[in-house]
Structure formats: C-alpha cells, structure tokens
Design brief:
- By secondary structure, the chain is α+β, with helices and mostly antiparallel strands.
- It has one domain: Pnp Oxidase, Chain A (Roll), CATH 2.30.110.
- The protein is built from 4 helices and 7 strands.
- The chain has a 7-stranded antiparallel sheet with strand order 2-1-5-6-7-4-3, with helices on both faces.
- Helix 3 runs antiparallel to helix 4.
- The radius of gyration is 18 Å and the shape is globular.
- The two termini are 19 Å apart.
- The N terminus is likely disordered.
- This is Pyridoxamine 5'-phosphate oxidase N-terminal domain-containing protein.
- It holds the Pfam family PNPOx_N.
- It comes from Rhodococcoides kyotonense.
- InterPro entries: Pyridox_Oxase_N, Split_barrel_FMN-bd.
C-alpha cells in the first residue's frame, strides 16, 4: 500500500488545502500571480498585490498594462497564491479561477484605495492611497469561480520533502 509523502508522491488529492487552510493563506499573503491570456494567445502572468474583501480579490494597475488589456478582452483569469514570504509553515498554494471586472469608476477607486493602502502600507496609508490615485489607474475585481488546484505540504510526512515521519 502506498503512503502519500513516503513512497507515493503522485496522487496528492489528500494534501489539498482545506477551506480553512485556503482562507488562512489568502489572509496571510498580500501578493499573487495574476494569470491572463495575451493578445497573441499566450498564457502570461504578473505578480500583483491584492486585497481580499467582500468575497472578492481586488487589485490595481495602470489601465494600459497587458494584464488589464487581457482582462478586458477575456475576463477569465487565474490567481495563484503561495505562502512564500509569510510566517505560515510548510509549502502551501492555491490556484483560483475567477472572472475579472475592470473598474474605472471613482466610487470604486475611492473606497478601494483607502482600504488597500491601509492593508499594504499601514504606517502611512494616506501617502500610498495618494500615489495610487492617478488618472489612468484602474481597479480589478476578481470574483472567484472555483479553486483549480491547492496544496498543503504540512499534511504530508516530512513536510513533503521525504524527511523523517514524526
């Protein structure tokens, strides 16, 4: 009988992140890889800071960026979040498929810049919010559709690296 993380590293269904584990990861991290399709049809991704609130992911970028154009052209995007750089133990990740909406409205920008700046720059949120508030900036709202893939190595013996079973 094969044992996941001991002599079987192929079927990792049992080490998917739980709903609680995914929520913990999303709350602990501030960056994701935003994956989209380019005009030429190639998959591409950029690292972006995010805020998760109102059951959505919220991000911002200059309107002319390739990933913004990609989201306008095809709103199907994927966000990949790992625990790299956080205090969370093990190696954790989640890949979330979602539908992006690009907002240019002042009403969205005003609440978002304030909350986003407080989240990412708590020592001086007003300065960060002022920097973000530029004429060509947009806010991207990503509504999760489904979790495509997730992983939590803390569910594996030896943290998934073949170490001692404790």
């Amino acid at each position: 009988m094969s044992r996941v993380g001991i002599d079987d590293n192929e079927n990792l269904e049992s080490v998917r992140a739980s709903e609680t584990g995914r929520a913990e990861l999303i709350a602990a991290q501030t960056e994701c890889t935003f994956a989209f399709t380019t005009e030429a049809g190639w998959p591409a991704g950029v690292v972006m800071s995010y805020l998760f609130t109102r059951d959505r992911f919220w991000l911002t970028a200059a309107a002319g960026r390739a990933h913004v154009r990609g989201a306008v052209r095809d709103p199907r995007v994927t966000l990949v979040i790992s625990n790299a750089g956080t205090a969370l133990p093990g190696r954790r990740m989640v890949s979330i498929r979602g539908t992006a909406t690009v907002h240019r409205e002042a009403s969205v920008k005003s609440w978002f810049y304030s909350v986003f700046a407080q989240h990412l720059a708590p020592d001086d949120p007003d300065a960060f919010a002022a920097l973000l508030d530029s004429p060509e900036r947009v806010v991207l709202e990503v509504e999760p559709v489904r979790v495509a893939v997730s992983h939590d190595s803390t569910k594996m013996p030896g943290d998934g690296r073949g170490g001692q079973v404790r």
